[in-house]
From TrEMBL:
Gene Ontology cellular-component annotations: collagen trimer
The name this protein goes by in its record: Collagen alpha-1(XII) chain isoform X2
Entry keywords, A to Z: Collagen
Domain C-type lectin as annotated: residue spans: 215-336
Gene responsible for this protein: LOC106166873
SUPFAM superfamilies associated with the record: C-type lectin-like, vWA-like
């Protein structure tokens, strides 16, 4: 089941999955699958693809099948429409053979995600590998090694196991952590349909919406529209149901946000972040996510007293250090999505 936010708030279930990413399916084509289950497996992949917005500036899809050998059925930049991708998936043939999962992951790395491949990945775009298998690999050590290299190369790895012959520990080794969000197992091929919405949601959650920037476990959006503090907070929610004004709770987050702003506009504008003491009547400062422990700050001078009630901005005249302004002032702002918090 897909866990959704309020209707009409650009949540992943309403729009399915409007993200920007390069996604490679790495699919077991070995003897144990058989023709009937092969068709079921392809339908499962088709349904996942239907959940994405596929296009030149949206999601790119690639498919690699593996057994004793491997075959790159199509590359990331080979097809630009969902209809073309779905048709090509349906044309993929069953071959049989052994379970060379290590070879499949390796060719995903050096073939599909090779930056020198003219049909390969885009730069600055998240890369995702989805391994689907119904058994243990022929060479478990090599499989773990190749998966580790893939993750070192910043490929977000998902593992889908089918049936009793898969080894759950191997699925965990293949996938990115935490395993609860990247590892899936079903008892048989017919049960794949029961997890496709959950997998789609987790892939969507692992990446950022289109026009947002990923950094660590958060996605950021720098808006050039000037609004009051309350209007800015509402605009963040309108952009994505789980978004808030950016909280900048750590030095790393603060540096990330200010670098994005400076790259976009220099020191030409002050920006709202998600922190105010208006809601407390000038007492404690409260973050946009309603937490109150301000353990890190970048105030221009000392922490403002209760006589300076208002909302926090990154002040353009002081290299984006924190200051308080009236919440009715119209300023541009920064939104964030905390990927560990949204569901």
């Amino acid at each position: 089941m897909c866990h959704c936010g309020p209707k009409g708030r650009n949540n992943p279930c309403d729009s399915r999955c409007s993200i920007e990413g390069d996604i490679a399916f790495v699919v077991d084509n070995s003897n144990s699958i058989g023709h009937k289950n092969w068709e079921t497996q392809l339908r499962f992949i088709e349904e996942l693809v239907r959940g994405f917005v596929v296009g030149p500036n949206d999601v790119h899809i690639a498919l690699l099948t593996y057994s004793t050998g491997y075959k790159i059925e199509f590359h990331l930049k080979e097809y630009e429409t969902k209809e073309e991708v779905l048709a090509r998936i349906r044309d993929s043939n069953y071959t049989g053979g052994s379970t060379g999962t290590d070879r499949g992951i390796r060719m995903m790395r050096i073939g599909i995600f090779n930056p020198r491949n003219r049909k390969g990945p885009r730069t600055g775009i998240p890369h995702v590998g989805i391994v689907v298998t119904d058994g243990c690999s022929d060479n478990p050590n090599a499989t773990v090694s190749e998966a580790r290299l893939a993750k070192t190369e910043n490929i977000i790895m998902f593992a889908v196991g089918i049936g009793s012959e898969t080894r759950f520990e191997e699925l965990i080794d293949i996938a990115t952590r935490p395993k609860e969000q990247h590892v899936f197992h079903v008892g048989d091929f017919d049960a794949l349909a029961s997890i496709q919405e959950v997998i789609l949601q987790e892939i969507c959650n692992a990446l950022c919406p289109k026009n947002w920037t990923a950094s660590g476990k958060k996605c950021y959006y720098v808006s050039s529209t000037a609004l009051s503090y309350a209007e800015a907070g509402q605009r963040c929610v309108d952009l994505h149901y789980s978004a808030t004004l950016a909280t900048a709770k750590t030095k790393i987050e603060y540096k990330t946000i200010t670098k994005m702003i400076y790259t976009k506009t220099g020191y030409n504008f002050s920006y709202y972040i998600g922190l105010d003491n208006e809601r407390s009547g000038g007492a404690d400062f409260i973050f946009a996510d309603n937490s109150t422990s301000v353990l890190y700050s970048e105030w221009i001078s000392e922490v403002p007293s209760g006589q300076r009630q208002g909302c926090v901005m990154l002040d353009k005249t002081h290299s984006f250090m924190w200051d308080v302004t009236e919440c009715s002032v119209s300023l541009p702002f920064v939104c964030e999505i905390d990927k560990t918090r949204r569901t």
